[in-house]
C-alpha cells in the first residue's frame, strides 16, 4: 500500500528487485524511471550529483508510481541517512563500511531504539504514507532496508562479522571499488575475475547469515548475471547511461 | 570558433544538422546530450519543463562541446526569444506563427536594426563567445537562426509570404499540431499522409525561397526520413524518450 | 481515476468544490494542503510568489492525494496557461478578461482544435495521468476547466457575451478588484454591498448560460457565504493566511 | 520609513538618486550592493540573467538597508511589472515604449484605478512595508515610480506625447539602443554625439512636462556626466562590471 | 539592535522566549512567522526539510523583523553549525549530545578561541549586523547561544557534567526521543509522565548550574505548560502544523 | 588540455598560481572571475555561502576558460571533498588539519588506492575532461592537489609531520585563524607580526619537504607580499570584495 514499505514487502516474499540508478540532479528523472518496469529507484548522493533537496523532491515522484526510493548516502554521512529516511526513503545504501564499528554506527542512525538510536521526526514519511506516529514507529525498523557496502578487502575479510551486526539488513557490493582494492590499486575493472569470486563469496555468506545482498551493475550484461545469481537487489546502469544509450540508438540509425 | 555561430556556419556550408531535443528541467541533460554526436541541442520552453534559468545554465554546458543551443520559446514569447539570444542561444524556434504579422514581430525581437528592433544587451553572448560589442553587433543578425513554426493550415496557406519576411531565416514544421489542424481537430498523428504532403510542399517552397527549413521528428524513423529528404535542421525525439529507451533496453534484457 | 480529470468529474456531478489557495513559492505547501479536506488546490501565479517551476513541482504532489490543481495565471499569460496544462493542471483561472476578444484568446490557448488552437505537447499531463496521446486529446477539451475572471465593470457589463464564448467553461469572480472598479477607484473592499450584488447577478447569469462560476473568498465567512449561495468553485483564504491563523491560535493561548 | 516608498520620497524632495544595476542571477548580489552608498538597486530582467524568483528574493535584502528596488522588466512584460510591484518593488523601468499606446498599457498594469487597471493583490508589498490594504491602496499610485524607456527614434519623436500620458511618472533613456536607432542600425555607441543631443533634448522636454527622467550609464564617466546634468535617476555600470573592476584592480597590482 | 544578538540580550534579561519552529524548505515561511508575535524563529535541519541554502536565505528575512534565528543542525553536524553561525544565526541546537565529549565538540565548533576552536569567517553575520570583525569577535562567544540536546537516558544520567562544559550555554530537551529512550524503545509519547519527570529534573539541574534550558512543544498545550514552568526557550509546533490548523479551522466552518 | 589537470601542470612547472576566491552562492560569479587573469578559481564551502549544487555548476563554467577549480570544504567534510573531486575539482583545501590523523583522513578521501581510499565514481570529472576511466584513475592521484590548512598553533607545532604525510601535496595557511590561535584568542589580525613569522616558517618547512604551500590573502597588499615570497598558490580577496571595490570606485567618482 505504502511505497516506502514496498521494498521490505518484496524482500519478505523473496522476490528480488531491479532498481534504476540515478545520479542526475533532477527529481523528474527519478519519476520518469519509476514509470518504467523497475521495482525501485536508487538515488546516488555519493558519486552522483544529487543532494538533499533533490532526494526530498524525488521521493514523492517515485512513490506516485507505488515504488520505493533507496538512497546511497556519501561516505560516513549517517546523519544524512536519518534525514532521507525522515523524508520517506525506503532503504539506505552506505558506502565504505569497513569495520564492525562502521556497521554499528550505520544501524544507530537508521533504526529506532532499542535496535539503534535513530532520532524521532519522520514528518515526510508520515505525510507520504498516511501513517500515524505509533504505526510508523512500530513498523519502521522492519520496513527500512539498511545495506552496508562491502567494497574493500578489509570489509570482505570481516563480511561475516558485518553481516552479524544486529539491525543491519544486509550488504551491498560495489564492484568498482572492490576491483581497485583487490588489485592493490593497480586499476579499476568491476568485471575482473577476482571481483566475481568475491561476489560469489559474499552472496554465499549472506545466505548463510539469512540476510540480504545487493549489487551495482555498471552494464546490462552484469545486471543479467547478478539477477541470475540470485542477488536480492540489483541496481543497474544509470540515468545518464540510459539517456546516452537512447541517444546513440537514434544517432546510429541516422549515420551513414 | 564560437559555439553560438556554429549553427549559421554549418548552414552556410549546406551541411544539415541533427539536434537533440530537451524538455527536462535540468541543464546537465543538455550538456550530456551535447557530448553525443548531435550537431546542436534544442531546448523546448513551449511544451518542455524548461524555464529561463535552465536555458541560461544549459547554454554554456552545450557550448563546452563546441555546439550551438537552439531555443523553442512559448507561443508569442518574443521577448523571451530576445533574452535567450542575449544569453548566447544560436537560434530561435517560434511556435504558431500563423500570419505575416506574427513573423514580422518575431524578426523584430530577434534581429537588430535595421532589420528588426532587437534591443541591445547581449552580456551572456559576449561572455560566452569572447566578442567585443561591435563584433557581435555586426555578426549577430547573420549568425542567429530564426525559424517560424508553420504548424496550422492558416500558416501553410501563406507559407510563401512567411518565407518572404525579411530577416526570417526560415521555417520549422511541427507535425503534431499540423496533423491536428489538417484533420480539423479530429486527432493527432504526426505521421499522417497529409502531414507528409504538407512537409514536402513546405520543403519545396523553402527551397524556392532560398531559406532554411527545420522539422521535429518524434521517433527515430521520422528523423531518418526527414534527413533523407534534405531538411536543414532535424530535431529528434527527446531527452525523456532517450532515457526511457535506454531503460527499456536494459529491462528488456533482464525480463523472462 | 486521474487527478487532472477529477475537477471536471466533480462539476459534472454538480458537486461544488472548495479549493485551497496557494501563493507561497514552495510546492510542498500545495502538497500539504492537498492532504487536508480541500477538493482542489489553486496556485496563484498572478499575485502569488509562484512561478512556472513551482507549478510543475506542485502538480504531482497534489495529484498524489488524488486531487486536481488549478492555476491562476498572470494577466494575459495565455501561453503560460498552455504550459501548465501541459504539466497536468486541471483548470485555468485567467484574470482581467474584460472583452469577448480576451475570452476567445483564453480559449484559443487552452482548448485543442476545433474549439481552440492549443498546441500539442502535454508530456507532463500524459506522464501524470498514464494516458496515451489519443486518449488525452479526446478528453482534454472537456476535462480542462477554463474560467475567465470577471472583475471589472466592463466585464460585468458583457458577462452574458463572455459566458457565451464557445469553449469557455465559465467565469470566476475576483471581489477585490471588482470592489475597486465598482467604487471608481475609491478603495478596496471585497465584501462591499455592490460586490455582493454583482456576485448574485453573475451567479444568476451563469446559471442561465448553463456554465460554471467560481469565486475567491478572502476570509472564512465569505467562503461559507459563497458555498451556501451555490458557487461551483470556492477558493478560500491562502496558505499564508492559514499559517498565520495557526500561529496566532498558538500565540493567543500562550499570552497573558 | 518603508523602503518601497523611499524612492518617491527622494524624488519629491528633488534629490536625484544613483542606483546600482544588477544582472546576475543571485539575490545576494543586490543585497551586497544595497549596503554600499547607492540610493537604490535596479534589477534587470530584460538583458540581465534575473528572473521572477530572484526579484522576489532580492527585494527584502535591499529593503533591509532601507533602500528601494527598481525592476526593469522585459519588453512588453507589463504583467510581470504588476507581479514585481506586488512583491514590493518601488519602481518599474519598461523598455521599448515606442508609442502612446505602449505607455498607456504600461500605466494600466502599474497604477490602480482610476488611473490605471492594476489588479489588487500586493501581499509581498504589504508584508514588506507593514501596511494595511487601505493604506497601501491610497499611497501606491504616488509611491510607485513608473518610467517608460525612450530608446528609439520613434519614441523620441513623440517624447512629449509619452510624457503627457497620465499616470506615467517619467521616462528612462537607454543610450545603447538609442545609438543603434539613431545610426540607422550602423552600430552601437552609447556615447555618440547624437545620443548626447537626444539626452539633452529629452531632459529638457521632461523638465517642461514636470516629470522625471532616468538614464543608464555604462561607464563611471557617463554616470558623472548624467549626474551633473541633473538626471533624476542615474543607474550605473553593473554588478558584473563592479566585480570585474575589483578583480582587475587586484590583478593589476600583482602583475609584473 | 542587531537581530543576531537579540537572543542573548533577552536571556540576559531573564525574559523567556517563544520560538516558531520551521521545517518547510522555503525561507519565506520563516519570514512570515517572524512577523507574528514569536520572539525567535528556529529552523530545523535535523528532521525538517531545510538545508543550508534555505537557512542562508531565511536568516535575513527573520532579521528584517528584528528577530533572531536559531538553527537545529543534524546529528553531529558541528561544521554545519559553524557555517550557519557565519551566516548570522543567533543560536544552535545540537541533537543527540550524549556525552561530555559530544558537548565539548559542539563548543569547539561554535565558540571562538580560547573557549572553543570556531574558525574565523563570519561574512554573513558581519553583513547582517553591520559589525566590524573585531567587534564581532569580541561579542560572538557571549552572543551565540549554544544548546546541547538532552534526549536520551545516557544524556540525562550525565546532565550535570554536560551542563558543566565550559562554553556551552545550556541544554534543550527533545521530549519525543526522550520518551523513546525512557520506554526502552517501546513507543513514542512526548507527553508521557516519565518525560515530564525528566523535564522537571533537567530544569532543576540547569537552574543549579546557572545555565539555560530550552524545550520543544509538539502541541500548544505543552508550550503553555513549559512556559509556565519557566523554560527559557520554548519552541512550539511547526510551520506545517500552523498551516494545517489554519486550514482545518476554515474547513471546519464550511462543513455540514 | 584538461582544465582539471591544469593546476598540477602549473605546479610541476614551478609556476605559482593566483586564484580568485568565491563565496557567493552563484556559479556565474565563478565563471565571470575565470574570464579574468586569474590562474584558478577557489570556491569556499567553509565560510562562504556556497553549497554542493553551486560547486557542481561552477566547475564547468570555470573550465570553459581552461582553468581549474579548487574547493575549500567545511571542517572535517572529507566526504564532500570526494564528491567535488568526482565533479571535476582540481584541488581541495581542507581547513583545521590539526593532527597527522586529520591529514591522513584527508588523503584517504581524496586519493585512490594504494595511496588513499578514495571511492571510485568520477562521472563529472570524466565528462568534463573527456577521459576514459583507466586514464583518469592513473592520473588522478597526481593531478589532484590536496592541501591541508595549517591554521592553529597545534598544527604549526607538527607542520613537519603533516608535510610528511604520504599523498598530501602540501599545506595552505589561514592567516586569520592563525592570528586568533597565536594571540591566545585575544583577537583576529591576519597581518600580525607573529602570523608573518609563522608564514615564513611554514614556507621554509614546505620547501624542505619538497611540497607545495598556498595561502589566503584578505587584501591585495598581502597577495602581493605572498606572491613575492614565492608561495605556490595565492588565493586573494573575494568575489564580494571585488564587487564592493568596483562599486566604491564608481561611487567615489560620483561623490561631492
Ligand atoms: Mg564504491
Ligand atoms: Mg507545435
Ligand atoms: Mg483580481
Ligand atoms: Mg535598451
Ligand atoms: Mg530529538
Ligand atoms: Mg581558517
TrEMBL record, chains A, B, C, D, E, F:
Ranges where the HpcH/HpaI aldolase/citrate lyase domain occurs: 25-241
GO molecular function, one term: metal ion binding
Cellular component annotations (GO), alphabetically ordered: cytoplasm
Keyword Phosphoprotein attached: no
Alphabetical list of Pfam families matching this protein: HpcH_HpaI
InterPro entries, per database record: Aldolase/citrate-lyase_domain, HpcH-HpaI_aldolase, Pyrv/PenolPyrv_kinase-like_dom, Pyrv_kinase-like_dom_sf
UniProtKB keywords: Lyase, Metal-binding
Entry-linked Gene3D superfamilies: Phosphoenolpyruvate-binding domains (3.20.20.60)
Keyword Metal-binding carried by entry: yes
Family: Belongs to the HpcH/HpaI aldolase family.
Matches recorded under PANTHER family: 2-KETO-3-DEOXY-L-RHAMNONATE ALDOLASE, PHOSPHOENOLPYRUVATE CARBOXYLASE FAMILY PROTEIN
Protein name per its UniProtKB record: 2,4-dihydroxyhept-2-ene-1,7-dioic acid aldolase
Lineage of producing organism: Bacteria, Pseudomonadati, Pseudomonadota, Alphaproteobacteria, Hyphomicrobiales
